[in-house]
Design brief:
Radius of gyration: 21 Å
Order of helices and strands: HEHHEHHEEEHEEEHHEEHHHHHH
Number of helices: 14
Structural class: alpha+beta
Largest sheet: 8 strands, antiparallel
Distance between the termini: 28 Å
Oligomer: single chain
């Protein structure tokens, strides 16, 4: 796949909407942080040292062993403009940190965008696997296979007592960060979300917004992930996250049942109003779009709206972001122009589903 295809098309594997518990879990991400022995961390490395890391990672990714798992295409950060970087952030393929601060950074992507390997971000190597629905074990197995190949060809920075060494102390140990993106509109509507988020912080997990640390939970989307990597095994981390996520899923389903049984007319009115606005609005700003799309997604999952697919809603999560809108337009847009183009794009995309 060419660079322009990665940039211009919103589709990614995690958007399929097909996977375990996909009515609530939009996607699963597994990230493995690794560093090369005898190489300074990216924040301290010279351009020459950072370039050497890129070369070594690229060589591993060109091996037959890696190609057998998934062919990868390298994209250098210095080859992208600010808007192209923003689109990759909006698609969750790179982090804001890699887009904004990395020197000699790069990303290696699989054609279906289910694998993203960031180079010279906070760590030398950050292997990311994205899968639709709730697939923690499958994501870990896929990431671990890639990690094993790297370990055959390069020496990792590793300490017998501390485990894998990373730039940030919170990642020392296993170096893995597992997360699930949850759609929790009913818990927000029934005002239970604050209590649940407070309880989550007490069990070694953390909740972030749509784009990770420091981002807002737009459209009732929350990222649940482990906070601790040191002193826990990979199985412990995944098991803890799985158990807590399962409880949240069941609480969200219970909240949805409560709304259907006790506030069905108000619930259907809210969902159908949002659907109507998205079908006919001529201008819509990003926060409103996220909320309206959340309502429609809930309507799809509850069987209230039948002629729109979950895939379409996942796709619109990316298509309505500022970077993608401007890339699609081929020019920078004012906020007003973005709001107008966002509304038109949503109308057109929903109309396709209506006709099919």
């Amino acid at each position: 796949m060419s660079l322009q295809q990665f940039i211009e098309h919103p589709w990614s594997n995690w958007m399929k909407g097909v996977g375990p518990d996909s009515d609530i879990v939009i996607s699963t991400r597994l990230r493995i942080a690794r560093n090369l022995q005898h190489h300074p961390f990216p924040l301290l490395a010279t351009d020459t040292q950072a370039e050497e890391v890129v070369r070594k990672v690229s060589e591993v990714c060109r091996t037959d062993a890696m190609k057998k798992i998934t062919p990868l295409e390298m994209i250098r950060m210095d080859q992208l403009n600010a808007l192209e970087k923003r689109v990759l952030v909006e698609k969750h393929l790179i982090s804001p940190n890699l887009a904004e601060e990395s020197r000699k950074g790069a990303v290696l992507l699989s054609s279906d965008q289910s694998v993203s390997i960031m180079v010279n971000e906070e760590d030398h190597i950050r292997i990311q696997v994205f899968l639709p629905g709730f697939q923690l074990t499958e994501a870990w197995e896929a990431g671990s296979r890639i990690d094993d190949i790297f370990e055959k060809y390069v020496n990792y920075a590793f300490d017998e007592q501390r485990g894998y060494l990373t730039s940030c102390p919170t990642n020392v140990g296993t170096g893995i960060r597992a997360s699930v993106m949850l759609h929790l509109p009913a818990l927000v509507m029934t005002q239970q979300i604050s209590r649940i988020l407070q309880a989550i912080n007490q069990v070694g997990l953390v909740v972030r917004g749509l784009y990770g640390e420091g981002s807002e939970a737009l459209g009732n989307l929350f990222q649940l992930s482990n906070q601790v990597t040191l002193g826990m095994s990979e199985n412990d981390i995944l098991s803890n996250l799985y158990s807590v996520a399962k409880q949240i899923i069941e609480q969200e389903r219970a909240a949805r049942r409560y709304l259907q049984e006790n506030s069905r007319t108000a619930l259907e009115d809210r969902i159908c109003r949002s659907y109507g606005i998205l079908l006919y609005a001529r201008t819509v700003e990003s926060k409103e779009a996220a909320q309206r799309l959340s309502d429609v997604r809930l309507g799809i999952d509850l069987g209230i709206i039948k002629n729109v697919s979950a895939f379409t809603l996942n796709e619109l999560l990316v298509m309505t972001q500022p970077g993608f809108l401007q890339q699609h337009a081929g020019q920078k847009l004012t906020p007003e122009q973005r709001d107008e183009r966002r509304a038109r794009l949503i109308r057109e995309r929903l109309s396709v589903d209506q006709r099919s």
